[in-house]
Amino acid sequence: MIRSPAESNTGGGHPCRARPRSGILRGMSHPPLFEADDPMVERLRALCAPFPESIEVEAWGRPTFRAGKKIFAVAGAMMDRAHTLVFKPDPEEHPALLELSDVFVPPYFGPSGWLALELDDRTDWAFVAELLDTSYRQVALKRQLKLLDARGAD
Q1: What CATH number is given to the structural domain containing 131?
Q2: pLDDT tens across 112-152, in order?
Q3: Alpha-carbon separation of residue 43 from 40, 73, 93, 119, 143 (angstroms)
Q4: Residue 71's beta-bridge partner residues?
Q5: 3-state helix, strand, coil in the chain (%, to 5)
Q6: pTM of the model
Q7: What residues make up the domain containing 45?
Q8: Which residues on adjacent β-strands are paired with residue 85?
């Protein structure tokens, strides 16, 4: 049966511009994945804070690190793998990174080319810093990259 725009949930507008049904997203919150003083999150904060216009925003119960509004890192790929870092690699490095035993394709982010890295006692934090730099550069605005590159030239 074909419904007229007046009968659809679009309120008479274009059928692709459906209004969200009330109550579906309201009141939903994700439980926090980390304690406030988690050492892994503290290390990630220290690595992410120096990037130009870097901010931390809690989303989905976990810290996300953003270049302005765009996410460049997420602490915790999933509930049962909390001590992980989700990052956006350089597309050319993606296949090589997947060959590492502690790198995997995370749910939700993976189809867009993102990867995740297990973080534990053996983590090479200099490598994590490189991954974060690359991830930041994938999403940052030109002016943010200028600021970042100017800092490196000092």
Answers
A1: 3.90.1150.30
A2: 889 999 999 899 999 999 999 999 999 999 999 999 998 86
A3: 5, 13, 24, 11, 26
A4: 66
A5: 30, 20, 50
A6: 0.75
A7: 39-145
A8: 75, 117
